[in-house]
């Protein structure tokens, strides 16, 4: 297991490098002079010089990249000329709330998806299964921002059930304030979770050891928990990992719609204010987050399925 | 029951459609309906999408305006149909271009293996490390808002999914009988790749294209909503929802109908995609 | 019988691991969240949701309203506007005299005033702050242009020295630009001084999470006893119009700004209070005359006549706005609605365009606030009118502050904003609009020597009747040259819950929290 874990950790190193290259290249996509673009309309000759030095724009491209890596390792992405704070500080202090929102949304998504996934799988090809699949196919197509607005109207204003965005006065209160955004994101990702859970359960249900168990008189409840879920969970876990991108995409939109002061709303605001340094850093942070989550799910997968670590 | 049967002419395909069950049929009919309405929009809509009707702002749905009017008096049904043209275009172009690029690269990588495959693999890993929307947003941010830049961003990000699928298919297919036969006959690599391999590996890519279509429309609408995609006053469903946002309490129809348009379109396309992937799975046997 | 596996333990082990993983994720992220300090007793907190965050606490470089309105809570000025908005009252200055020749003004400072950190307000602080304020290189130097220096007479007195009589002197000093702040603190923080304020106002800065919220707490050393009546103010940044309204309606915030006009009726019906301040802001478009063909008055005026202002007032502002007939807001002194105002007249527009170098029209782009749907809609109405005379208008959406910076760098073609007067005196607005040396006449590059001459004249003219004549003439010149195109008077609409009283924005839309209470 340790060896497997070490192997997986090593494997992400080249990906991290690749990600850093993409982030590095992003700024150079800007038509025109990146230094002027970053400063936007505050560009004065001496500020432009300063930014040029910071980015090392006069150097050959490979040296620029090394320069960038050096800065990145010190988390130095420069200041945000809009917020008048360091980009890294500004972004990192918003990460906890985004992480909480993502985790919370995942929990809600699972709470919605697991019962329906099990129900659909056990009634496979029946009317219930079809109905569930149809409904969730419809849900995939609901735009997150639209769903957010409608849910806010119904749950926060009409029926006054949940608070609308913002941060609470205490940790528990913050969680309460995040419920509406998390619910929206959870609904947004639930169709994928339902589909994945249903198909991996179906696969497991038709596998040899289960049919043998049934033939030998295994009770349904036992079958469900001990066999089906335990083994059906593993491919499901890796699906979760693969779909973290979808989850983060939804979170970005919802943060902006509900005014949650996280990394997602920072990204959108920064695009509107043309704050390129922040955009770069946020893209980097989110990519690293995805990589880490995938690593985590791979390790979880190995934990759940001993065959994996033996094979590795 | 091998993969080569996929490369056969039309009559079989029609059988699949019949075999796909009602969900495929519903999906196809529904989508065709929307596409036809969108294409014919300039001729069948009673009003003009950008003409203002300042005396008739925020009218609820009525006989004169089936979907009501927005705050500038524009007929919402007209705008929804005209927006369909924009959004369907977003879905189509957002799928076709990355499909072509990704499939070509995936084909090369899967056929030749070795270092082209290794390089492609690394690039795919890196691009997929970024959440889709984040990378699209970042590229649009750098290039500037607008539809063209959106297409550029989508292309740069989406092609990897197709490359990965086609590469996988190509890898497993290259060892099959008909490919080996073609090689022993002395056919050139290019010919083998494009005439023999391609038709068989494309089907899963097309199937994925269906869900990608939905994804692209949602991304386009999201960017439109934030003012980063299609710029107003060009009608686009996301833009319409954004424009009507302030009136959701007093005139909800301004927001509801464009939203429903997205949901319904996505639903039909997803139906097509789901049943197509069921069929492919059955044909492939796994 | 079948070999039963130890079901319970297998089941629990997996679930336990997953549960631990999930719990760990949630707990870790929760632990890291910043929380504000907790209070022992229940403080009275007012929460206000505003559409934008503030940027700086340095009055000399502040150009945005959110910053201005917070500065007004943290700093005091020498004088403040009286309740009738036609004069001033003492604030940090208890008495003052203007010399008979009008070339100097002496102020006696209030004694015993302390900054929020306990240090005493001295004449040096006043001299320092005002010297920075009158600096022509600062954003607001033009507001104080005849003031050449500020000197300390003694520990209780300062004197302002002017190069010519200055009619709007007192109102100018009452604006946020005349804020008095601590010299020592400013010098201590250097270039970060704008992020670390120290003033004598009713409140002081407690915390600032950029882009999210700003918290002020009561100034324990405030010189007015019994005020303020609340302990804490939290300014939340909620850019989305709709969310602000929803927050107010559900009682999650106490006050909001920029209530969308279409929600006014429904908010009042639901028991919320609406504070509407009339005619303080004019929605207008500025045209950059370095972009051809905007340098021709015929083109500009043609464009000006294609806006259906009545439709804007009705469709976009739901009757809450009034058609503008002058560049000056109607609440300004010497406002004249009858100096040949610009009207909605397509025939006249066509005729004017025909006399220009582009009789068949052209294409031009306008930069609009991405967050303000109403302003975008107004632009759509204008675009529809322009189309009738062959001009195509393209909208480009940008965030508000970036928009301001774009305008300041003069890289725009057409820019839209609503501007407010900080005092009822028209000098500020006229100066900004017509004085080429001040910010290039609001970045339009409008350069009319005659207008400039009249501008200086009215500034010197202490007789109100004579001043009215000059200001009317200026308004007429604006209506004929159209350097800026005005649309409607936009009311500043604030909403509060029924529990809030004492929140009364003045005619400039400025609000203070000294007298606000919450049930």
Uncertain regions of chain C: pLDDT < 50 for 5+ in a row? 1-14, 32-41
CATH class of the domain at 281-489 in chain C: Alpha Beta
Question: How do the helices and strands follow one another from N- to C-terminus of chain B?
Answer: HHHHHHHHHH
Tertiary shape of chain C: globular
Percentage of residues assigned to helices of chain B: over 70%
Radius of gyration of chain C: 27 Å
Query: What is the tally of beta strands of chain B?
Result: 0
The fraction of residues assigned to DSSP E strands of chain B is: under 5%
- Largest sheet properties of chain B: none
| Mean pLDDT across all amino acids of chain C | 82
Strand content of chain C: 15-25%
The number of helical elements of chain C comes to: 16
Provide the CATH superfamily of the domain at 281-489 in chain C: Dipeptide-binding Protein, Domain 3
Estimated helix fraction of chain C:
25-40%
Structure description:
The complex is a heterotrimer of chains A (312), B (286) and C (519). Chain A contains 16 helices and 2 strands. In chain A, strand 1 and strand 2 form a beta hairpin. In chain B, helix 3 packs parallel to helix 6 and helix 3 runs parallel beside helix 10. Chain C has a domain of 209 residues: Dipeptide-binding Protein, Domain 3 (Dipeptide-binding Protein, domain 3, Roll). Chain C is globular, with a radius of gyration of 27 Å. Chains in contact: A-B, A-C, B-C. The interface between A and C is large, with 57 and 55 residues.
């Amino acid at each position: 297991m340790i060896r497997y874990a070490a192997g997986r950790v090593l494997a992400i190193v080249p990906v991290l490098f690749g990600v850093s290259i993409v982030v590095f290249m992003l700024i150079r996509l800007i038509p025109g002079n990146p230094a002027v673009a970053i400063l936007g309309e505050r560009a004065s000759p001496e500020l432009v010089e300063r930014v040029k030095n910071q980015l090392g724009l006069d150097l050959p491209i490979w040296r620029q990249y090394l320069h960038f890596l050096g800065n990145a390792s010190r988390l130095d992405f420069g200041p945000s000329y809009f917020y008048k704070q360091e980009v890294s500080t500004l972004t990192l202090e918003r990460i906890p709330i985004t992480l909480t929102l993502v985790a919370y949304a995942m929990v809600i998504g699972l709470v919605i998806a697991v019962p329906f996934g099990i129900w659909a799988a056990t009634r496979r090809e029946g009317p219930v299964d079809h109905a569930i699949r149809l409904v969730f196919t419809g849900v995939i197509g609901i735009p997150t921002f639209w769903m957010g607005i409608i849910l806010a109207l119904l749950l926060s204003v009409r029926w006054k059930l949940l608070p609308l965005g913002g941060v609470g006065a205490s940790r528990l209160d913050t969680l309460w304030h995040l419920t509406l955004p998390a619910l929206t994101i959870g609904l947004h990702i639930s169709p994928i979770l339902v589909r994945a859970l249903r198909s991996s359960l179906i696969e497991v249900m038709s596998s040899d050891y289960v049919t043998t168990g049934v033939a030998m008189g295994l009770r349904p409840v036992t079958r469900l928990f001990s066999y089906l879920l335990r083994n059906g969970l593993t491919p499901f876990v890796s699906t979760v990992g693969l779909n973290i991108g979808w989850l983060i995409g939804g979170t970005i939109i919802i943060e902006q719609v509900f005014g949650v002061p996280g990394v997602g709303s920072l990204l959108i605001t920064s695009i509107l204010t043309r704050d390129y340094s922040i955009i770069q850093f946020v893209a980097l942070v989110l990519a690293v987050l995805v990589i880490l989550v995938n690593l985590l799910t791979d390790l979880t997968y190995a934990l759940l399925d001993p065959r994996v670590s033996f094979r590795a | 029951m091998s993969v080569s049967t996929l490369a056969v002419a039309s009559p079989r395909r029609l059988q699949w459609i019949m075999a796909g069950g009602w969900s495929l049929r519903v999906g196809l009919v529904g989508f065709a309906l929307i596409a036809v309405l969108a294409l014919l929009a300039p001729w069948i809509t009673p009003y003009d999408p950008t003409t203002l009707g300042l005396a008739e702002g925020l009218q609820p749905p009525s006989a004169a305006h089936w979907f009501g009017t927005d705050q500038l008096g524009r007929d919402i049904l007209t705008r929804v149909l005209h927006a369909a043209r924009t959004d369907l275009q977003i879905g189509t172009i957002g799928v076709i271009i990355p499909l072509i690029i990704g499939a070509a690269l995936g084909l090369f990588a899967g056929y030749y293996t070795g270092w082209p495959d290794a390089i492609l693999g690394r690039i795919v890993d890196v691009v997929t490390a970024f959440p889709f929307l984040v990378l699209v947003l970042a590229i649009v941010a750098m290039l500037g808002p607008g539809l063209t830049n959106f297409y550029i961003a989508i292309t740069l990000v989406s092609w990897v999914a197709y490359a990965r699928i086609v590469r996988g298919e190509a890898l497993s297919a290259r060892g099959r009988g008909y490919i080996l036969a073609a090689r022993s006959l002395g056919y050139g690599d290019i010919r083998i790749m494009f005439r023999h391999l391609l038709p068989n590996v494309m089907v899963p890519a097309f199937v994925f294209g269906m869900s990608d279509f939905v994804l692209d429309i949602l991304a386009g609408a999201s960017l439109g909503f934030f003012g980063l995609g299609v710029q107003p006053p060009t009608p686009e469903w996301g833009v319409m929802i954004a424009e009507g946002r302030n009136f959701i309490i007093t005139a909800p129809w301004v927001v509801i109908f464009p939203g429903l348009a997205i949901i319904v379109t996505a639903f039909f396309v997803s139906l097509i995609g789901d049943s197509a992937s069921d069929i492919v799975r059955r044909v492939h046997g796994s | 019988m079948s070999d039963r596996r130890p079901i319970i333990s297998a089941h629990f082990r997996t679930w336990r691991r997953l549960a631990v993983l999930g719990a760990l994720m949630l707990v870790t992220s929760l632990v890291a969240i910043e929380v504000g300090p907790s209070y022992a007793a229940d403080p009275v907190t007012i929460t206000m949701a505003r559409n934008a965050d503030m940027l700086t606490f340095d009055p000399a470089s502040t150009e945005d309203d959110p910053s201005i309105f917070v500065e007004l809570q943290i700093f005091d000025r020498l004088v403040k506007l009286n309740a009738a908005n036609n004069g001033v009252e003492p604030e940090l200055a208890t008495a003052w005299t203007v010399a008979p020749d009008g070339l100097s003004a002496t102020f006696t400072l209030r004694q015993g005033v302390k900054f929020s950190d306990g240090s005493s307000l001295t004449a040096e602080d006043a001299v320092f702050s005002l010297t920075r304020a009158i600096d022509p290189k600062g954003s607001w130097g033009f507001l104080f242009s005849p003031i050449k220096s500020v000197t300390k007479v003694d520990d209780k007195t300062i004197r302002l020295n002017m190069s010519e009589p200055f009619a709007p002197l007192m109102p100018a000093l009452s604006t946020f630009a005349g804020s008095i702040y601590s010299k020592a603190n400013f010098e201590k923080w250097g270039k970060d001084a704008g992020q670390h304020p120290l003033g004598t106002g009713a409140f002081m800065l407690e915390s600032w999470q950029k882009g999210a919220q700003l918290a002020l707490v009561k100034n324990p050393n405030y010189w007015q006893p019994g005020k303020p009546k609340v302990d804490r103010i939290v300014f939340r940044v909620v850019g989305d119009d709709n969310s602000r309204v929803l927050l107010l309606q559900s009682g999650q915030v106490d006050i909001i700004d920029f209530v969308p006009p279409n929600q006014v009726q429904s908010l009042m019906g639901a028991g919320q209070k609406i504070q509407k301040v009339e005619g303080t802001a004019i929605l207008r478009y500025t045209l950059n005359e370095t972009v051809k063909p905007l340098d021709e008055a015929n083109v500009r005026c043609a464009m000006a006549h294609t806006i259906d202002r009545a439709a804007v007032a009705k469709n976009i502002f739901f009757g809450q706005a009034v058609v503008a007939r002058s560049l000056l807001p109607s609440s300004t002194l010497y406002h004249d609605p009858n100096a040949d105002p610009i009207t909605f007249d397509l025939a006249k527009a066509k005729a004017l365009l025909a006399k220009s170098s582009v009789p068949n029209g052209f294409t031009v782009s306008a930069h609009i606030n991405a967050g303000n749907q109403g302003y975008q809609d107004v632009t759509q109405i204008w675009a529809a009118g322009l189309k009738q005379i062959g001009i195509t208008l393209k909208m480009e959406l940008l965030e508000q502050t970036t928009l301001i910076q774009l305008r300041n760098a003069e890289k725009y073609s057409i820019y839209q904003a609503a501007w407010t007067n900080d005092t009822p005196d028209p000098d500020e607005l006229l100066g900004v609009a017509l004085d080429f040396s001040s910010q290039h006449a609001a970045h339009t590059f409008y350069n009319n020597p005659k207008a400039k001459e009249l501008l200086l004249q009215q500034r010197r003219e202490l007789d109100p009747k004579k001043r009215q004549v000059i200001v009317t003439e200026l308004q007429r010149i604006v209506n004929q040259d159209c350097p800026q195109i005005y649309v409607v008077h936009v009311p500043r609409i604030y909403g509060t819950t029924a529990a809030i009283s004492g929140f009364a924005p003045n005619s400039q839309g400025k609000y203070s929290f000294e007298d606000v209470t919450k049930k």
